[in-house]
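Hi team, as promised in this morning's meeting, here are the two structures we talked about. I've kept the exact order from the run log so nobody has to guess. The first one is mostly here for context; it's the second one we should focus on when we meet again. Sequence first, then the predicted structure tokens.
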Amino acid sequence: MSTFVSAREVMVSGATGYVAGWLIKRLLEDGHHVHAAVRDPTNEQKLAHLNALQSDLPGTITYFASDLLTEGSYAEAMAGCEIVFHTASPFSLTVKDAQRELVEPAKLGTRNVLEQAKRTLSVKRVVVTSSYVAVFGDNADFLAGDKEFFNEDDWNTTSSLTHQPYSFSKTEAEKEAWKIARTQDQWQLVTVNPAFIMGPGISPYATSESFNFMKQLANGTFKSGIPNFGVGLVDVREVAEAHLCAGFTPKAEGRYIISAANSSFPEIAQILRDRFGNALPFPKGTAPKWLIWLIGPMIDKTLSRKVLARNIGYPVKIDNSKSIRELGITYRPVQETLTEMFQQLIDEGVVVPS
């Protein structure tokens, strides 16, 4: 295997995404030539934040048209690259057919990128963005085993097409990646499994469930009380750094959970209220579990009573020590992550304090 330190050309799929933006920034800072795989290389508005990075940093970007669900679509983008960062993934929480809309696209996208890597002789390492939901399905899972904390040896065994289908799709996609990796010995696979990703975006117009959640905290959605939902939190900049280290650290191998802290929705709300005061209708208390269980499915159809029963009131207990020990990740305080993210929303006029 190569030591990767001299790699100059790398491919990033889903290059306009939330995580990919910070990853590309780091790659450009280190002087690499980024093959940015995007849906439409002619969409200047979508690429403006990446072009702005390129003008200030030593690295360079070349854009390539690629479709996650089309076989062979990444051939041109991947040509000559030693490292492939596969960050693109279909994402939707509201689906009618989980198999057709979530699982099959997630597996097919993984298959198309990794099978192309098998056909591209320059590739020596593939880094895939997975998720910590491929490690566990529900917060209640932490009580089911004999371990206090879950780590990279654990897999989600409780999600299915009918219960937590998004988590199931991420699990199936990562399993597909490891299955393909075992069919060859040309390149090494490393997966990055981030917790709930927060923090400012390279693009102020970045879209993700993280930004939607922050807007809900500010618009009064949870004014009467927020569910006591345990969650792991991590800064998007640490997630990007983890990808970089997973790609360029010779001894990096296997899976890496990337999580700064075992937190909760009420703690997030408290941090923002402490920093931004009463100018916005942040939740001031925790909603009773019985009330959320009763009305949750009526407000949000993705929240089944089983999901609520198995997650509200249960803490997340994730072990991040492998990422610190092997990748050298230093996690910033979640207070910094959350306040900088929310300040960006204020600065861009997305959130307007009274």
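And here is the second protein, the one for discussion:
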Amino acid sequence: MKTIDRTKPVMVTGATGYVAGWLVKKLLDEGLTVHAAVRNPDKTEKLEHLNKLAAESKGSIRYFKADLLKPGSYAEAMEGCELVFHTASPFTSEIKDPQKELIEPAVQGTRNVLEQANKTASVKRVVLTSSCAAIYTDASEVAQTPKKILTEDIWNTTASLSYQPYSYSKTLAEKEGWKIAETQKQWDLVVVNPSFVMGPALNANVATSESINILKQLGDGTMKMGAPNLGVGVVDVRDLAIAHFNAGFKPEAEGRHIISGHNSSFLEMAQLLHGKFGDRYPLPNKPIAKWLLMLVGPMANKAFSRAFIRNNVNHEWKADNSKSIQKLGVTYRKLEETMTDSFQALIDKGVLPAK
């Protein structure tokens, strides 16, 4: 059990990211000093939203240059920190070389951050942002689990470099994390495994998030023929930030935690949006036939390969989130609130035209 001194700085990797933004906001609002490890501290336009958050809070923020692939590059940022949040990891379906673009940043990044923790005497706890993708690859696997529900005891064994390489990268990175954690006794590792993250982004450059891309396709007419009845878990980015915060500061927190508010589907998400915005935007309200999706899916989105469609469409996604509720004290907001706020944020930021 590790108690974290709140007067000491807290390090966050990937601080400009979608998930990290809300975590940084929570840390600042609690009056903490955030050591933000970013790729390029000189690119001030990428830091504007974080500076604004700091100005409006009791906390303060300092920036440090760091590179996921460079050993030792987190040394300065980690100095004096008892708590480290490692959120930095690529999430995109637009990839040419999965080994170079997904696997290496995820695995080497985790190794570099955790090996630096070994060398930094002040560190007591590392919170690693993993994913439900480290638990499963396809929704069809849920029915094959012992209790027909995903739990923290399950590991992904089906993803590979050629099929669902993002899931493979998250699995390898988390395994690397546990391997390093088990070799030492100075700090403990707590892992959060979010499902599909939705909710409004704090940064202006939202286009890099895969969840935002899906939302955009729902609203711009790409899916007007129908939404895929694709089983997926959904968590609000704001609830995920609270989960991270509590994973860091609750002394009794340990192990992995599924962070997922809803067992849902793309179809349900689309229908909730249709109820609110369907009079103004070409949002789908019905499912697209699986056979038709097999034809057009791969053209609309590279992630929708035929194998992926076969293994995820018309399959129920179900996960047990009870550990996150009981041990981390997470309360999940309604899916309708998450979807409405997400979509409205895209309109407000001009990603979708105001109508």
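Starting points for discussion:
The chain has a mean pLDDT of 92.
The domain at 10-347 is CATH 3.40.50.720 (Rossmann fold).
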